[in-house]
Amino acid sequence: MKPVIVAEKPSQAKAYADAFKVKKQEGFFDVQPCEAFPQGAYITWGIGHLVELRDPKSHNPKWTKWSLQTLPILPDEFQFQIAKGKAKQFGIIKKLIFEADTVINACDVDREGSNIFYSIFDYTRARNKTIKRLWINSLEVDEVRKGFMQLQDNRKDLLMYEEAKARQMSDWLVGMNGSRLYTLLIQQKGIREVFSIGRVQSPTVYLIYQRALEIERFVPESFFELEGTFKAEHGSYKGKAKGKMKLVEEAQEILNKHQIDGFLPGTVKQLKTEDKKILPPKLHALSTIQATANRKWKYSPAKVLSTMQTLYEKKLVSYPRTDTQFITPNEFSYLVNQVEAYQQLIQQPFQVASRNPSKRYVDSSKVQEHYAIIPTKKIPSEKVLAGLSREERNLYEEVLRTTLAMFHSDYLYKETTVTTDVNGLAFFSSGKTETDKGWKALFSNEKASSSAKEPTLPKLTLHEQVKSKVEIKEGQTTPPKPYTEGQLIAMMKTCGKFVEDAVDTEILKEVEGLGTEATRSGIIETIKRHGYIEVKRNIVSITEKGRVLCEAIEGNLLASPSMTAKWEAYLKKIGTGNGSSELFLGSIAKYLNQLIQDVPNQLNDKTFHMTTETFVSRKEVATCPTCKKGTILSRKNFYGCSGYKEGCKQTFPATFLKKRLSAKHIDDLCTKGRTDVIKGFVSKAGKSFNAKLTLINGQLKLDFN
What we know:
Shape: globular
Strand content: 15-25%
Protein name: DNA topoisomerase
Strand order of the largest sheet: 2-3-4-1-7-8
Number of domains: 5
GO molecular function, one term: DNA binding
CATH class of the largest domain: Mainly Alpha
Family: Belongs to the type IA topoisomerase family.
Domain Topo IA-type catalytic: 157-596
Number of helices: 21
Enzyme class: isomerase
Largest sheet: 6 strands, mixed
């Protein structure tokens, strides 16, 4: 019998099919007999998650209505279903699997790939099949063929599935229970909103909220420094005395002590020049390329991930969802053999500094499921490069240049430090002189950041006499900066430093913070979609809704990365065979029971404020402007007339051009026919703008006057 190869999605299946001679059929490829498959094979595909967890009401009708009395939601057995619109493809996969002896999991080589495959396979109810695992990091033809010749057993795969399934179920339990619990309790306080709770998303929002509070509560403090401006034979330079003083009197006292008053001669007491170097950057993992692309081009982490996935499917880069920055000798071998060809792609030839692998980049012991993101063996033609979008081209070149930097020389510079003595008071200056651009030449088209520009020093000689002018300079402490979207990835990864408990900090360091390399960008998109944060010009800010959520969960484990860290550590144990899904989900159930017991009391004395989303607790908003008889009611996802059964069709959307419309906005439209200026509409082109809304013949219109 022909083995059945299950890919994660159509594009992946097509990449596998490109490695063989195939006949295209509906829902699968028929692989002709070859060395890897003497009898041929079938390649079929999922469409991402073909099989998904059912919603609560499908588990039990009593969970249809949101009610505090029906919590907790703890199914005796989790039930799954075929995702909407995907039944036909599932039927094709099921038929092929039932007719085969061997099934090959060829989904992405990560936990989610294992979850997608086994959720499909288990739902077919197939039995007594041999399951093999395709384990590759590149979709190039030769790598695909080699991978199918070296299939692995499914022992590790099954453990990854157990871990992924436990994570999926725990997230479902926390989300379904937490969201209903907090939404219903906050609605009792007069705020009509749905508050989504998540095991990873909630502490992530809380960390952003904490930064916002730090900025808002920051009180600037003045400080004083002593600065000298020195005029030497070949030019001027500046220097500072050590220390910052809180009072101007302290600074003046130092000047008095050294009898410094205005202009005095100074002496170059020390002059030291050192040769220094900066090594080429490490290879990219997903998080580092997300941070780099956000800094350079303001791309969101989700945009980077989707673009990298496209480049992977075009066989130009290796697997992007990787958390390592190392490769093995195998990858180094093909890179070094093609280094000149890669140089031609960016038209920047250079002398290779070394063709020997360095432990900084090549270390098999640091490579687990995947190696760092590097170019594949495939050298794209000019036509292929020209066909890439601007984002694809930028990211491909970023991977290419970072990989080439591994073969380039170090960046060399001279650092000069100067100590200038004025009446026994030392002033310190430093300057940098570039001597060899080295690997930085590969990135020379980029603008240097202002912080990277070091002051230059004039030519000086030891014991040289200089004219000096010493002044007291006043400065002010500055608040922490808000996060950029790219910095959120690093914040999630290194959140252990925000936790006081040393044990929790260590656990967070071990599990690499909140989320995983593959899921962090999705979490950021989720909290944006739920309206907890806004990103404008790449700056992240907490919304009023986000503040209400954080005020509600404050003091609870849901606000802390610590709980997620402990859960994540145990999930990893499941993935290595040292943990039990049953025990883990049992601990989640205990936690949720405690949460349901504690939160009502925690929220009793809390008051929440939202200027744009608050509403009177009754659902009636205003008299219907169309039929003049019914009442416009506030419903879950829209506002509608109570007279709809009598034929009135007047409705208002709850969200218009990505802006949530409050009950006050609808009341103004019904009573005055227009609103005041509403901020934050988003056009189809993705641009934010402000406008009034008017109601004309029952329809909403924008008014820019």
